[in-house]
């Protein structure tokens, strides 16, 4: 499951992330994972084309408002978000169950 998105905002690159590991306005990216990030409490994406590692901590994802979508891309990203958030909830519930046992 994935969605194609156009980067519309590449501003605000953190100093610890090299240019080749940052978005480029006008480029297409393949979104392969979505999550809710804190403290922003916003949806953010992991893109296939850029591998952010522990060296880039705390930056692991790109906020959703950095992207625009075609009509099909919007449908795809909606399905991806639903899937990822449901999966995250299942994992969190499982971990809570294990910890309480």
Layout: helices, strands, pairs:
Blueprint: E1 3-7, E2 28-37, E3 42-47, E4 62-63, E5 67-68, H1 71-100
Antiparallel strand pairs: 1-2, 1-5, 2-3, 3-4
Provide a descriptive summary of the structure in words.
The protein has 101 residues and is an alpha+beta fold. The chain has one domain (3-100). Helix content is 30%, strand content 25%. It is built from one helix and five strands. The chain has one helix at 71-100, and strands at residues 3-7, 28-37, 42-47, 62-63, 67-68. A five-stranded antiparallel beta sheet has the order 4-3-2-1-5, covered by helices on one side. Strand 2 and strand 3 (42-47) form a beta hairpin. The radius of gyration is 15 Å and the shape is globular.
What is the count of distinct domains?
1
Alpha carbon gyration radius: 15 Å
**What is the first-to-last residue Cα distance?**
34 Å
Number of helices in the DSSP assignment: 1
What is the strand arrangement across the widest sheet?
A: 4-3-2-1-5
Mean pLDDT over all positions = 91
Silhouette? globular
Helix residue percentage: 25-40%
